[in-house]
Amino acid sequence: MRNFRKNHIGSAVIWLVVVLIAIFSLPNLTQLVSEKGQTKIPSSSQSQVANMIQKNWGHGQKNTTQVVAVFNNGDHKLTDSQKDQIDDAVQTLEDNKAHFGIKDVLDPSSNKEAKKQLVSKDGTTEIVQLMVAKSHGSYTKIDSQLTKAIKTPGLKTYVTGADILNDDFSKATEAGIQKTEVIAAVFIFIVLIIVFRSPVVPLISLLTVGVTYITSLSIVANLVKYANFPFSNFTQVFMVVVLFGIGTDYNILLYDQFKEELSHGKDNWEATRSAVKIAGRKILYSGLSLLIGFSALFLAQFSIYRSASGVAVGVAVLLIVLLTLNPFFMATLGPTMFWPTKNFNGGSRSKMWQWLSAHSVLHPIISLAIVLIATLPFILTYHNNLNYDNLAELSDSLPAKQGVQVVQKHFSKGTAEPSTLYIQADHKLNNEEALKLIDMVTKTAQAEPGVKTVASATQPGGSKVSALYANNQLSTVTSGMNTANKGLNKIGKGLNSADKKLSGTDMQSGLSQVKQLSDGASTLANGAVALNSGITELDNGSEQISSNLSVLNDGVQQYTAGVGRLNSGASALNNGIQSYTAGASQLGSGASQLSSGVQTYTSGVSSLNNGLQTLANKNSELESGASQLASGVTSLQSGSQQLSNGLSQMQSQLNGSTSAAQLEQLNTGLGQINSAISTLANTQSTLSTSLTSVGDNITSAGASTQKTADDLKQIQAALAANPQLAQSNPALAAAVSDIATNTKNTGDQLNTAGTTLKGISGSSSSLTSDQISQMQTALTGAQSAVTALESVQNALNNQGLVSGSQQLTAGLNQLTAGTNQVTSGLQAYTSGVASAASGASQLSANSSTLNSGAAQLASGTSELNANSSALNSGASQLASGTSELSANSATLNSGSAQLAAASQQMTTGLGTLSSQAPTFVSGLMQVSNGTQTMYTTLSGLTGEMGQLQTGLNSAATGVTKVAKGTKSANSYLKGLQNSSAADEFYIPKSVLKGDTFKQSLNTYMSSDMKATKMTIVLDSDPASETAMNRVTNMQKVIKNNLKGTSLENATVAIGGQTSTLADTKSIASQDFIRTAAIMLVGIALALMVVTRSLLQPFYILGTLLLAYMTSLGLTKLFSTAFLGQSMLTWNTPFFGFIMLIALGVDYSIFLMMKYRELAGTGTPGQRIVQASGIIGAVVLSAALILSGTFAALMPSGVLTLIQVALVVIIGLIILVIILPIVLPALIKLTYPAKPDKNDDTKTTRQERNQD
């Protein structure tokens, strides 16, 4: 049991259990960094206020991240095909929003304003803005999915965004930590082998530090998870370098003391106890200062700075592990720890430190001067211009960074990371007053230096919408007022003119003329009634004519069918004659064919006779219709005469020269109408007579045709009885002769009928060329008279007789319509008569052809008796004639149809005339009533004309004054239009409520319309100090401009990368000074306890600060020369400070504690030189190991870690050089040269106790 305690086996078991618990309880560090490791800025800063407004924005954008998809074609313009591919990719995103977690898409095709902002001016690049839900998954998942979705052949595509870049930074840092752990472990192992010349000591050292790292990391991670302990990307990496570096230093100190104790012949347990007691005190003092330094970071306000306080937890665990677990290995292994080394002589000395301190004591002022001369140039040339651009932290090979660089190249630098100004009020902003203020803020932001574009609800495209500004709207108003002024001047002139005319008007004389007009209108109305009756009778007669023509057409069609049958019989006869010439034996067969042809011919002739008989029977009805037509024409003529008489009476009653002349013109036209109607009546009479003659001739033709049919029957009977009858019976020749005679008579009669129809055609032509022309001339005159009466009506209007003149006008318009329809009807009638004439001509031609055919038939039969060859020739001619007759029967049928169509047109025209006649009569009655009313009204208005004239005079004067006032007001408005006061936003309600402006409101206003935003693009790098200063100043200027307005109490905040960096700069700068002061005070107090001196802590801190400031200057020069970065990252100075000060103070404590141990051995100068020689070897080894540990950060590729490592390494190099110079020199200058007896007594007592 005693050995159990002596060998510290219990400690080993406990730490084994602790490590196992730590390993199994360790949370997911990557998830912790993602969820709680982001930079946290105080909620009162403007960027965080802006973020809070954005979170409550609505429109489905709550808890979203902005992602930008970049499509680039290098330095060449995008082709139409490539643009189509981009559109397809965007459509894929639109169609699969749920799959990609997309809440909103803004691409160049969304609207014109978006196209201006999202397509580069050189046409090589397009960007698409996406709002993606954070709940969709990790940023790595979002990046991966979208990268695959937008991949387009032939184009370079990138997915980037602030959160994606931060995620890439976290992954780069995590990868850097893994590299650092391996490199640091290997480096420490090699250094320890060199120092102790044993492979066992390095393994034990790494094991104890590893236990410390695992345990402390698990504690910190669980505190972060369950207690919101400060955490960031840098927490783990600093724990690695600090614990491995300082832990190794402490182990070297402890193992070196253990080795020295073993050299004195002590056993394992005694050597362990003595080493822990002597070296452990130094470790505790040193660790205490380190613990105080890192614990002070917990009092910082900035999350990044506070996150480094996790190192304090690691230091506390380290101290416990080193002083409890190391004794187990030391007591258990003893000298075996240093295998294969057998030499356990005391620790070595540092000749360099001893030489530097010795010369510093001899020449303290010179030594201090040399140090200042060597360091001040680097301190004075250093400027605290820091780089806040997170892109500098990332490798150029990352696609997200490449995407940002492409956007910065082809757009402005600010396009990739625009700022957003938010204004949140307690009332809605979608009204004219609020929008005016928003536009004022927009123009204020545009006027700020360094601002490229500002897009807002009033200027969605980044420029003014001219139609929504008062000066543009005043331009429309002034133009309208010019027009109105001209109109007012015209009205004034018109009123003056009316006043003058009324002054010269003789109302009483005009009233008597109106009376005469009223009487004439009554007479005219009566005549119109009579005219209407005549038109009705004429219409009835026309309908009867149309009916008779229809019957005539049927007869012609029957005649055509008979001709066809006649043609068939002639063909059969021809065949019989040809058979006769072949021989007497074939006569019987020919006679049979002739008999068949005669039957067909008889049937056709019978049908023709029936049709012609029917046509003859209907001829009386046609004559009756023609008589009625003539009667109607007579009635029309009578009505026209009455109308003419009425107009004559009106003319006699009107004394005005203009009205009388116009009525005279109308009277003349009506006379022409009477003449034409008379001619029409005569023509109708002639037509009736001609049609009667046609009927007689057709009847005679029918009788002759019947006789022909009887003769043919005799031929048929004779041929049937005796086939040889053709040569022996003279009756055959007589019958054939009768056929020829009768057929010739039929042709003559048809010819006569054709001549008669030609006469009808002549009469129709005469009517068309003369009488119809005269009637048209008369109607034209009547229309001129109507026009003249309209002039009279206009004159009556000027006299104020509106009601009566309107009634007159209505009647005259109806009269005009009626006369036009009469003209149309007569023209249609004329056309129909001409068509009938054409058909009659064709019938005449057909009758001539028929007559010729009959003559040929007669000639043929004569020759048949004499000579069979002549008979054959005649038969052929007969067939030819009947063919022509058949062909011409079609023409006859067409002419009959045309005659019927013409009759129908005449009927339609007369029907239209008949239907409009009542309207004409009604119009004249209205004229009569209107003139009577007009007369009555004028009688009452005569006495009021004086008042009217006075009113017109006053109105003219008033209009003139209004015109002058309008001109004056317009002049003022033009001046206002050109002034700066008119350059104000004003939106009409119709535009405000319109769909177009609604799109702008949805884009730039929150869902509750109580917050608005403006997108601000800077022309400089958003991460530059210039841009940050501009954003900060802009927020103040806008806030001041809103004072005294309805938005005075509104929340104004600017969000975006520039604003976030500006807040980061502000809080980091303030917190750096505050945290550094706390840290220095804490370390100073610890040093006072350790050194038991008031001056020495300040000497130590001054030396550390000198090394730190010099290191910053050198690091900046080194970074510019070798890293291509002219500025340090914004957190490099802080992390370099806490690392160098906290770690560097250890070496000062080692030196000063050795100095105190040597109290009483000489003067202060001698003791410090001796202490420097003894502790120098330990410090140099520790500095080498710590520098190597920090050098392991460089392969991480993270700029901040590289620069922090440089600051620490360079600072440690400077420190190990100036520490043995500055401290000895200051002690030489401030402490007496004589030995301190008290110190000697204390030292002797301490040494005795140790023995």
Task: Provide a compact summary of the structure.
By secondary structure, the chain is mainly α.
Structural class: mainly alpha
Distance between the termini: 28 Å
Low-confidence stretches: 582-595, 650-660, 760-769, 788-793, 795-819, 832-865, 1238-1251
- Helix proportion of residues, in percent? over 70%
Radius of gyration: 64 Å
Write down how many β-strands occur, each being a DSSP E stretch of 2 or more residues. 10
Shape: elongated
The major β-sheet equals: 4 strands, antiparallel
In DSSP terms (H or I, runs of 4 or more residues), the helix count works out at 37
Average of the residue pLDDT scores: 72
Work out the count of structural domains. Answer: 5
Strand content is: under 5%
Strand arrangement, major sheet: 2-3-1-4
Main location: membrane
Membrane topology: Multi-pass membrane protein
Subcellular location: Cell membrane
Pfam family, one: MMPL
What keyword list fits this structure?
5 domains; four-stranded antiparallel sheet; elongated; Transport protein; membrane; cell membrane; Alpha-Beta Plaits; mainly alpha; 1251 residues; Mycobact_MmpL
Structure description:
This is Transport protein. Belongs to the resistance-nodulation-cell division (RND) (TC 2.A.6) family. MmpL subfamily. One of its GO terms (cellular component) is plasma membrane. Keywords: Cell membrane, Membrane, Transmembrane, Transmembrane helix. The chain crosses the membrane at residues 12-30, 180-196, 203-224, 236-255, 283-305, 311-339, 360-380, 1072-1091, 1098-1122, 1134-1153, 1174-1194, 1200-1227. By secondary structure, this protein is mainly alpha-helical. The protein folds into five domains: 2-18 and 171-339 and 351-373 and 1063-1235, no CATH class; 60-160, 2-Layer Sandwich (Alpha-Beta Plaits), CATH 3.30.70; 418-469 and 984-1055, Alpha-Beta Plaits, CATH 3.30.70; 475-504 and 947-977; 507-946. The strands form three sheets. A four-stranded antiparallel β-sheet has the order 2-3-1-4, sandwiched between helices. The chain has a four-stranded antiparallel β-sheet with strand order 7-8-6-9. A two-stranded parallel ribbon has the order 5-10. α17 runs antiparallel to α36 (1199-1230). The chain is elongated, with a radius of gyration of 64 Å.
